[in-house]
Amino acid sequence: MGFVFLLMLAAMVGVGVWAFATDAGKRAEYLAEWRASPISTTATLVFVALTLLFFACVFVPPLGMVEIRIDRERWHLWSLTGITLIGYVAVVLVVMLVLESRRESEKKRRRGR
After folding, report:
1. What is the sign of the dihedral through the CA atoms of 69, 73, 76 and 79?
2. For 66, phi and psi rounded to 5 degrees?
3. pTM for this entry
């Protein structure tokens, strides 16, 4: 199931990159979306890249066995991308909760006037 997800995600990324490279209309659309909300678009791209790299490392053993040295310890690439992906999702959830609570408190404050 994970391998099928990897293939589907890779196909979606490939189609998006191909459209960006070959179609001027799509390129303008993608860039307009990025200009409208650069933080959200960049966050989505980071999430897709981390997810794709994690599943690629899990299902392609030579890629997953790449070791990265961090402070005298060696980490496999798949474990680093997995840990980073979990941390990324946690940060996004906290930010979403904080923003939602701010919106709710702003609504309550406006109703009180």
Report:
1. negative
2. -60, 130
3. 0.71
